Structure prediction request, 426 residues.
Amino acid sequence: MNILYVYAHPEPRSFNGALKDTAMVTLGKLGHTVKVSNLYAVRWKAVLDTQDFRMRQDPYQFNPALEQIHGIQTGSLSPDILEEIERVAWADLIIFQFPLWWSSMPAILKGWFDRVFVQGFVVHLEKGQVYERGLLKGKKAMVVVTTGATREMYSPGGVHGDIRNHLSLITHNIFEFVGMTPLPSFIVFGAADMTRDEGSLQLNRYRAVLEKL
Amino acid sequence: MNILYVYAHPEPRSFNGALKDTAMVTLGKLGHTVKVSNLYAVRWKAVLDTQDFRMRQDPYQFNPALEQIHGIQTGSLSPDILEEIERVAWADLIIFQFPLWWSSMPAILKGWFDRVFVQGFVVHLEKGQVYERGLLKGKKAMVVVTTGATREMYSPGGVHGDIRNHLSLITHNIFEFVGMTPLPSFIVFGAADMTRDEGSLQLNRYRAVLEKL
Prediction:
């Protein structure tokens, strides 16, 4: 399979770094072709703004959605966005790995979706190309996430609410919305307080999941 | 009241710009003191990274949560963060206005939470200072949001799911988590397709809500 691995953690020496390295080795051994978008390493520009569009449809009033459609039609999106779009188009599976910050993804990854998942490429609202007719239909996508809080806190009756509910903003409102099929999310709870042994167990568990892709 | 208005839209000539201007005039007339954090206008740095910390606790391995606690204790967070922290501390009410992108906030606003809501200032996990004991207790907070999709799509049985559920990641998992009391969210559905008259009605509705604060 062609796998795009979108990774958003600032510290290579972290448990997230270990998860990512585990994935690289495991996916490589299995014979997959892997491309990595290491957002912190490439200093990914997180903010969607006018600079994303090299040829504006409307230079007077900036409407992000309209400029995205125009930008994809004319090939005038900025080069960093076009490169990611090519990778997404190439991939059979996209894995998004990140730490849960404020029950959601870090800004640098949110900015990847804001900028790369442009209308006209992933969906087309006016043509009704969403969900079953989403333009990324046929691709799979997976969330790999670490949390500071415990499994109990993120359980259906827990103080933070059910993490599956929170992640559905990604798995349903992004993945399924653009036509991708979500694989079960891989979640490591309480990552900040793990012992080395617990960490090793989680890495083994991740390896086993990747081997069954 | 002291009101901090955190605003995240790139285009002043947009409906979001009109909502913000309506708020400025209305809140001013009512005698409130208002400070605005116009994130696009100040080119807010969205990405939490090592540059946020002028004096690292651990220069070898970057742990964002630990560095934030250390940074707030030593006053060594970067100046743009410290300025926002002072504004939050000053405010009785914080209003967050943004367009809903991917069922969530734009990256530039997510990065405001990632960087400004530092542990040791808004919560302290080890001391159990969260929710009822959150460090921002006594303050109020409000979401003001525009959506591209219709009210029906964001209803409990709609294709995108209940928007109240999505916004609870902000109103519960952020506002309530840090001890703030959420006010009812102000939502404008289908903002992209409104006529001028519909827009005026929504601005009047917003004015009426602000007058009752």
Q: What stands out?
A: DSSP finds six helices and six strands in chain A. The beta strands of chain A are 2-7, 33-38, 93-99, 140-146, 181-182, 186-188. Chain A touches chain B through 46 residues (CB under 8 Å). The two ends of chain A are 9 Å apart (CA to CA).
